[in-house]
Amino acid sequence: MIALCCVLCGGQGAVDMALFAKAKEPFLRSFLKLPNGVPSHDTFSRLFRNLDPEQFRAAFQRFMAEFSAECAGVVAIDGKVARRSFDTASGKSALHMVSAWGSEQRLVLGQIATDAKSNEITAVPKLLRMLSLKGAIVTTAALNCQRAIARQIVEQKGDYALALKANQETLYDDVVLLLNDPEAPQATMPPAVEADHGRIETRTATVSTEVKWLQEQHQWPGLQAVGKVERVRQTAEKTTTETAYYLLSKPLVPERFNEVARQHWGVENSLHWRLDVVMNEDQDRTRMGHGPENLTVLRHMAINAMQKEGSKGSLRGKFKRAGWDDQFLYRLLDMF
User: Fold this and answer.
1) Tens digits of residue pLDDT in 238-268
2) Coil, helix or strand at residue 257
3) Tell me: the pLDDT tens digits for 286-335?
4) CA 246, 250, 256 angle in degrees (round to 5)?
5) Helices in the chain by DSSP H: which ranges?
6) Alpha helical stretches, state H, 130-276
7) In terms of CATH architecture, what is 51-333?
8) Domain limits of the chain?
9) Which pTM value belongs to this model?
């Protein structure tokens, strides 16, 4: 509880937790019994190093059950490395955490760490099994465009929009051939133009449901349509063009497909960017035992609580407010 309070106030590792406990002891004693005083930083370090991450993730899922029983809208799956969690002396590599981000709820729905004998492709199926996918559209980067993952999403009664690249070589070539054929039946939305941060971006989405011949050739689980999004970015210095191709288990109209493809990047902008820039995760040197994984889950809990709290203000501002205003911190703790 003390560690959670510390993270809600913008703290990071075990040293911050011990300093927070000492500075906020009167506040903490208003709802905690501390017969032996406040813990030291060694105690916090030992706790998170030895805490079973499977049990802590289960606690996270129970916490999330208070907010929504099922996923809805776009669920973006993506991985992030905690860059300074490696330990050269013991040969331990940096933590790689794969998260499920509810793009429309703007909440972390679940997470799982990969270990030295695993990678993101094997972690994603375990993460998906934690979620109720009925009515959701799962998006992934091209790395996770795998038959087994597509099959699992469909079996869990969800839909997918999987980014497709040359890791599926022959399928990729056939999808590119289909979507770039001017005579092939397909639907294309009018170009959508947005100007922001000194650049102009024009996006055009195209969807084709004429995939019978693709299925005869490739037999991809649940495939109902394919799509592409063409992006043209203009800045004062240069203009760049990019085309991304997707496999779809649901025949979306081009406008909705464009929204789904774009919402995937919410996991980068609304989760990973916040963890790095606002919560300074990449500079946290917690590296022993289960510490890096457990503290990442704690940060996810803090982000979700801040998001569900509902008042206006930036995430950074809310962390400061929690540190300065005990009543606001009480309100956040009531969610747990």
Assistant:
1) 899 999 999 999 999 999 999 999 999 888 8
2) helix
3) 777 888 889 999 999 999 999 888 888 899 999 999 999 999 999 999 98
4) 75
5) 2-8, 14-23, 25-29, 41-50, 53-65, 120-129, 147-155, 169-179, 212-218, 254-263, 266, 273, 291-309, 315-324, 326-333
6) 147-155, 169-179, 212-218, 254-263, 266, 273
7) Alpha-Beta Complex (3.90)
8) 51-333
9) 0.85
